Amino acid sequence: KEIEKRKEVEKMTNKEVRNSQEYIEAFAKYVKTGNAAECRSLLSDNVSGGVVPVPTFVGEIVAKRLEASPILSRVRRMNAAGNVKVGFEVSATGASVHVEGANAPDEETLVWGTVELKAESIKKWITVSDEALEGTTIDTLGEIYKEVAQKIVEKADEIAIGKVIAAPATTSAANGPGVPVLEVSAIAADTIVNAVALLSGKAKDLRIVMNRQTKAAFEAVALGLSYGADIYDGLKDRIIFSDALKSFSAASADDTFVIIGDIGYGFQANFPAGNDVKIKVDDLSLAESDLIKVVGRLPMGHGVTACGRFAVITKTGA
Fold first, then answer.
1. Strand-pair partners of 61
2. pTM (two decimals)
C-alpha cells in the first residue's frame, strides 16, 4: 500500500504534492520534529537544502491575510526578483494641437525620476513547547501560520505608512515623489479639506488613514458644528484605522497623525520571493527549554511611486 501511494504522489507536480494529504501530514511532523526529510522525499526536485515548501493551504492563509490588509490589499503588487526601480514623472510639458501644414510641435520636456524598491525581510517568530506540538494537527498548524502571517502583514502595513511619512515634502528626481505636509495646531472643520487640496487632480480613489482616537477628535468638532459641515470632505466612509499613527492628542510636535491619498496608484509593493510567508522550524536553539521556534519571513520592497497622490497632516509645536 505504501509503495502504491508513493507511486501516485510521484505522478503529481510539486504544487499537487503540496496539496496532498500525505504532504500536509508530513509537514505537520516537520513542525513537530524539525526533520524535513519526509517532506523533501515527496517533492519531485527533492532538494536537500533551502526552505521547505509549505502546503498550499498555508499559502491560502497568507493570501487571505494579504487581502484583508487595509493597506496591502489596495497597493499595486508585483513579483519581480531582486530590487526594482520604478520610474515616475517629476515634470513634463503638455501635449499641443498640431495644425496640418504647420511646423512640428516642440518636443516634450520630460524630467524623469526613479524609486528603488529595496527588498527587506519582515520576520516574526514564536515559540511553541514540545508538549504543545506533540498534539499538532493540520488545524493547529493552520493556527500557527495564521498568527505568524497576521503579524507579518500588520508590520508590512506599518512600514508602508512609515514610507509615506518619510517621503520628502517636495518632489525631485533624486529624492522621489513628494508628499506635501499640512501643519495644524488643532483639529478644525477645514483640516481634511485643506489636506485634500494639496493632492493632484490625478489622485482619484482617496482614503484617510488615522487612529480611532483621532476620528473621535474630528467627531467632536463635527458635533460642535451640529454636523452642519462635512469635515471629512466626502470621505467619511473611506477611513482606514491604524495604530501605526498616533492619535492627535498623543502626537508630539511634527508627528504625522493623518494620511490622505490614493493608495492604489501612489504606492507599490514588490514581493521578490512571491506572496508566501516562508516558514522555518528551529528545534535546536531553545532545546534546553523544550521550546521550538517557528520563524516566518516575507521579503518585500515598497514605497511611494507617484507624485501628488499623498498628503500628510502633522501637529505643530504650538
1. none
2. 0.77
